[in-house]
Design goal:
alpha+beta; Thiol Ester Dehydrase, Chain A; 12-stranded antiparallel sheet; globular
């Protein structure tokens, strides 16, 4: 992989593994993340409650963890055009203030994107990310598909063997993963007020949206070095907002619509179906696709979030699993 401003698509080899400098979660990063995304997960906002439930104060918001992981993977995607999807995100442990996260990123597959006369050549890169803490515990794993620029004037690279299958998302919902990493949590302090409506078929949408602001600041906070998030010229005249920004705002809206949401345990799929730019206003509708009894009266809920920018322009299609008390 060559070039200080790269790698470009042709430089990315299947089987390559890279890492980025670790990032320590502290009070500042938690506060800035909350200010930009307005998260409403009680455990991430209330250290006293987090200590009662988890036995340790300063629980990191799950969105901060996946934002750091994705930012650390961007050493491979400095020349990204867009992120197409995330798949099979799973938490394996929690992270808290004082923990240092480090992500290794492996290239699983590459394939050239279909050529078009109205745009420069680009290729798809499928990445597997593994995030560990300072003790070596695996905290998070996920797959990510990035659309990356080709190097100007370079010959076309051959697609990887069987790459086509790798880029096709599996259909339907798979069995839920039991979050054994939450076994030590006491969920009783979270059971306050009226039960949250998490029956299959429940659907709700806020009557107002959230404006996208401080987009470069979120990219800098999480170590994301992709050029399109920092330089308008790289984004074709407008900076492209980091995909995790839209996901974070959507999650904040889901928290208002499903107030008993405790945390996120895994994603089935997350597709960026349209670009997001700063000053867009995003609105989310959440639907409950499935539930499974968990413990202490809590359930695992399969939640589907559909997010639009103004004019009902679709930007995000996200199916994930959350613990709801």
């Amino acid at each position: 992989m060559t070039g200080r401003d790269g790698p470009y698509f042709e430089d990315i080899e299947v089987g390559a593994v890279v890492s980025a400098p670790g990032q320590t979660i502290d009070a500042g990063s938690r506060a800035v993340h909350r200010a930009i995304l307005g998260d409403r997960l009680a455990l991430a906002a209330d250290d006293a409650l987090a200590e009662r439930v988890t036995g340790r104060p300063g629980l990191a918001h799950p969105g901060l963890v996946w934002d750091i992981a994705i930012g650390q993977s961007s050493v491979l995607t400095r020349q990204v055009v867009a992120n197409l999807f995330y798949r099979d995100l799973r938490f394996h442990a929690t992270a808290s203030a004082g923990d240092t996260l480090t992500t290794t990123t492996e290239v699983l597959a590459t394939t050239r994107a279909r050529a078009r006369a109205d745009r420069p050549p680009r290729g798809k890169v499928l990445l597997r990310m593994t995030t560990r803490d300072q003790a070596g515990r695996v905290v998070l794993t996920l797959d990510r598909c990035a659309l990356v620029r080709c190097r100007d004037g370079s010959p076309a690279a051959a697609p990887a063997a069987a790459a086509g299958e790798a880029f096709v998302a599996p259909a339907g919902l798979r069995p839920l993963t039991t979050p054994t990493w939450l076994d030590g949590w006491d969920l009783e302090p979270l059971r306050q007020g009226e039960p949250t409506p998490v029956t299959v078929g429940y659907r709700a949408e806020l009557s107002y949206g959230d404006v996208v602001s401080s987009a470069p600041e979120l990219a800098r906070l999480t170590g994301n070095v992709a050029a399109v998030h920092h330089d308008a010229s790289a984004g074709g005249g407008r900076r492209l907002v980091y995909g995790g920004h839209a996901i974070g705002l959507a999650l904040g809206q889901v928290c208002r619509l499903v107030p008993g949401l405790v945390t996120v345990t895994e994603w089935f799929a997350c597709d960026h179906v349209g670009p997001v730019h700063e000053d867009d206003t995003l609105t989310t509708r959440v639907s409950v696709l499935g539930t499974e009894d968990y413990r202490d009266g809590a359930v695992l809920a399969v939640l589907h979030a559909e997010t639009w920018a103004a004019g009902r322009r679709p930007v995000l299609d996200w199916t994930f699993v959350g613990v709801v008390a």
